């Protein structure tokens, strides 16, 4: 009988989630033949699962409202994935179909790209840069976490749009990758002697800051106090946050552009793959601490 | 011989400026009849001087660049004023004329209004609300320092535009004034039990924050660390700073609107007057600590 691995949400973490304390790995056998489906249900065999920083935000007390609902204690941690339907009680979804199968057939890229450059992180990059940032050719853009699932796409689109691209990352392999992507300036923020407060004090007059996340603040009870917000006034800065979910009606133009750039070789995408659900909790922690490199994907045998 | 009082910039303050240490009161006699003017110079007898928070930003090391030049050590502290020309070596400015005289003749308000509601602070309110904030009827606006030179104008224009106006100030007389202005909600932030972090955590989704200054941060070596900036992402907040100087090309529409609202009684303006330059340093300090109430104006005999 096939076994089904899962990660259960055990307790709300204060800081970084710990396997055994906040997450628990479970293995259950599943009898597919006799598995009973409710009306409209489908049973999916996962091939790829996505690990994303926003998932940490779901590991919270459910009484705290946010843009995405809290995980339920005792239940499996949810995420986006790609899989094949092995059983269906829903006329819209036939056995053997892959979710997104129709869309995928139009593209000749790894399936996992639909969790990355052609999925939510890619769209975060696309919307954040184009719609929120509204870049003009010749401007300079600074990207933090520039080799990450979102950052690497932002930087490459920015190059396509004629911007001067400066990126930072946390180790030298990531920096080398950014150089390969022809970023105009790159530096390792862990080893360079830069001001702690680089972002605001080094911005130009009328600069725009586009904020899609603040991963360094997700796992701490003592959030960092930003002390130079006064620059917002003196430098006429605009800081704008956004959530990609609000912009999903623009999926078509996003997919069209990314598809074209991938085909033309103007856009590359670096993934960080782990095999098997049993390695997902560690990979998730690596994602939160910056030890991963590129879009985090769990491959399932 | 008439005497001329002045306040000299003696030293760059770290915190609040102290009279005697960073500012010095001087009195000089001036022989108007024999006073020699350079080519193009005029000699003005001041009637009103304006004290404004941005002046604190000019009391800095001149090597630090900002949107307005640093005061020169050893020279008189400068500010906006209204006066009469008593001697002129400039064909454009005739003796007896008041600066802004032509514009003033169109309006029937106290002259000092040109330093307040019809001047830089009023325009900060007007531009910040209309052009940066872009309010829509029915929205709620929260105003800090709501009885100040800028805040009281923001709140009243917001009422005219059909907004729900919430304001905060530092004592009960100010709160009473805000009630008289028909603000929809007012509270004394010194005595109310509000969250220290009210602004960001209590904002609505898609809120806009318009920042024209951060007076609490002008006189400290230990700036306040804002720890809840993550709300900018989760609540899709936009924070935008601006400097009114960048918008002076819109003076005409500003004056036209304010003039009309003043005439219709829709707009009131509270001034805090002190008499004589010798009282200006203390009034300036009161302005920085929030002990003043309304637009700070120095009347000169």
UniProtKB/TrEMBL annotation, chains A, B:
<feature type="domain" description="Enoyl reductase (ER)">
    <location>
        <begin position="20"/>
        <end position="298"/>
    </location>
</feature>
<keyword id="KW-0560">Oxidoreductase</keyword>
<dbReference type="InterPro" id="IPR036291">
    <property type="entry name" value="NAD(P)-bd_dom_sf"/>
</dbReference>
<dbReference type="InterPro" id="IPR020843">
    <property type="entry name" value="ER"/>
</dbReference>
<dbReference type="Pfam" id="PF16884">
    <property type="entry name" value="ADH_N_2"/>
</dbReference>
<protein>
    <submittedName>
        <fullName>2340_t:CDS:1</fullName>
    </submittedName>
</protein>
<dbReference type="InterPro" id="IPR045010">
    <property type="entry name" value="MDR_fam"/>
</dbReference>
<dbReference type="GO" id="GO:0016628">
    <property type="term" value="F:oxidoreductase activity, acting on the CH-CH group of donors, NAD or NADP as acceptor"/>
</dbReference>
<dbReference type="InterPro" id="IPR013149">
    <property type="entry name" value="ADH-like_C"/>
</dbReference>
<dbReference type="InterPro" id="IPR041694">
    <property type="entry name" value="ADH_N_2"/>
</dbReference>
<dbReference type="InterPro" id="IPR011032">
    <property type="entry name" value="GroES-like_sf"/>
</dbReference>
<dbReference type="Pfam" id="PF00107">
    <property type="entry name" value="ADH_zinc_N"/>
</dbReference>
């Amino acid at each position: 009988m096939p076994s089904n691995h899962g990660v259960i949400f055990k307790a709300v973490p204060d800081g970084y989630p710990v396997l055994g304390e906040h997450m628990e790995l479970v293995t259950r056998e599943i009898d597919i033949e006799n598995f009973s489906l409710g009306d409209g249900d489908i049973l999916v065999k996962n091939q790829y699962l996505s690990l994303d920083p926003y998932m940490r935000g779901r590991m919270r007390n459910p009484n705290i409202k946010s843009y995405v609902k809290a995980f339920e204690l005792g239940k499996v941690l949810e995420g986006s994935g790609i899989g094949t339907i092995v059983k269906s009680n829903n006329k819209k979804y036939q056995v053997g179909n892959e979710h997104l199968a129709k869309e995928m057939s139009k593209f000749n890229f790894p399936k996992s790209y639909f969790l990355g450059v052609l999925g939510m992180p890619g769209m975060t990059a696309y919307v954040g840069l184009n719609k929120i940032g509204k870049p003009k050719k010749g401007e300079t853009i600074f990207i933090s976490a520039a080799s990450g699932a979102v950052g690497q796409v932002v930087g490459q689109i920015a190059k396509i749009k004629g911007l001067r691209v400066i990126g930072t990352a946390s180790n030298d392999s990531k920096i080398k990758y950014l150089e390969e992507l022809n970023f105009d300036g790159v530096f390792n923020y862990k080893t360079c002697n830069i001001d702690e407060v680089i972002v605001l004090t080094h911005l130009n007059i009328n600069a725009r800051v586009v904020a899609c996340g603040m991963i360094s603040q997700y796992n701490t009870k003592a959030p960092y106090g930003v002390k130079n917000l006064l620059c917002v006034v003196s430098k006429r800065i605009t800081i704008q946050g956004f959530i990609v979910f609000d912009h999903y009606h623009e999926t078509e133009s996003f997919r069209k552009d990314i598809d074209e750039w991938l085909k033309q070789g103007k856009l590359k995408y670096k993934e960080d793959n782990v095999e098997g659900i049993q390695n997902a909790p560690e990979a998730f922690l690596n994602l939160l601490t910056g030890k991963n490199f590129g879009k985090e994907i769990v491959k399932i045998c």
